[in-house]
């Protein structure tokens, strides 16, 4: 579903005029001189002006993963999504579609909805009770003595919303990137067997990481650091991202085991008609993507100490628990794991140049019963621990970027997806600044 957008703050002219010409020229030069194959210069991670550009050029122009359909199962259900200076209301409407509204009252700018999630009929601002329909139309505003007040001129501003394979995306650009439709056609067949509309939220975790959002994304795009994830390494092969010739001696046995498990997984996928091939265009399309189905260690079923299933309920029409994980990366703010027994979604929402909210959501079959079909602590344990470890890693990097002696270091060959993310980011910002 799409709704109209009216967001003058995103215009290039507004962005250019909001920064001094000399400062904008310096920043433009930083992008032009970026050293390929290396981490970014410190200002990319520390400068409020560059963060402001990121909010305009990336989060103000591109499709952002906001939520799953499991978070909005019924009409009137909503989530609020905040990043940088923006706040959006993502609302399930009576027709089953999604309305995306700016969470800014048209009277004096108060937040209309203050909870992160909930259910509502009309939207009522708590300041002066201006009341809006789920479509954002102003339907009530007491205006004593006002004879020329036209309510039709003061509806909530809208943004674009799209729903694909149970995932909800938002975009604030006047004209959103057109190729997202093609990217959705790529990932929909991979996700369809998991049937996200028939899932429910088991748990959601919000972590604020004291680091720039790009450091959070860089950390996710490689497994060079995966020795620091002991809980995850029980099921996720720590050789992820490696190829023949790059495997260190201490991981050779793991590599062989992974190779055998992947071959067995691909045979099962062929038997069930489930796509598994790697599709990767992280920086060669505007809506960058990487997706594949990959084997897990142990029993090969889920993120547990022995790889055994964590929920007794299969998702969708899947007929086998031992189907590894479908892993998907989307630029610029999300990654996902789709397993036979549950799904984990990750969304990154920048707060400022040195703080980022990471939202992790665990989904299970909508008829799964906590305590009978799954143990919530066991279901969430691996990624809760991994998230805390990643938080520590990216905060170390932020501390380094703040140091006067920091300079960009080279990415290793196994970190090629980090380079792809940074290359995508630089291309998009340069297009916007141009």
TrEMBL record:
<dbReference type="InterPro" id="IPR001663">
    <property type="entry name" value="Rng_hydr_dOase-A"/>
</dbReference>
<keyword id="KW-0001">2Fe-2S</keyword>
<keyword id="KW-0411">Iron-sulfur</keyword>
<keyword id="KW-0408">Iron</keyword>
<dbReference type="InterPro" id="IPR015879">
    <property type="entry name" value="Ring_hydroxy_dOase_asu_C_dom"/>
</dbReference>
<dbReference type="GO" id="GO:0004497">
    <property type="term" value="F:monooxygenase activity"/>
</dbReference>
<dbReference type="InterPro" id="IPR036922">
    <property type="entry name" value="Rieske_2Fe-2S_sf"/>
</dbReference>
<keyword id="KW-0479">Metal-binding</keyword>
<dbReference type="GO" id="GO:0005506">
    <property type="term" value="F:iron ion binding"/>
</dbReference>
<dbReference type="GO" id="GO:0051537">
    <property type="term" value="F:2 iron, 2 sulfur cluster binding"/>
</dbReference>
<feature type="domain" description="Rieske">
    <location>
        <begin position="63"/>
        <end position="170"/>
    </location>
</feature>
<dbReference type="InterPro" id="IPR017941">
    <property type="entry name" value="Rieske_2Fe-2S"/>
</dbReference>
<dbReference type="GO" id="GO:0016705">
    <property type="term" value="F:oxidoreductase activity, acting on paired donors, with incorporation or reduction of molecular oxygen"/>
</dbReference>
<dbReference type="Pfam" id="PF00848">
    <property type="entry name" value="Ring_hydroxyl_A"/>
</dbReference>
<keyword id="KW-0560">Oxidoreductase</keyword>
<dbReference type="Pfam" id="PF00355">
    <property type="entry name" value="Rieske"/>
</dbReference>
<protein>
    <submittedName>
        <fullName>Rieske (2Fe-2S) domain-containing protein</fullName>
    </submittedName>
</protein>
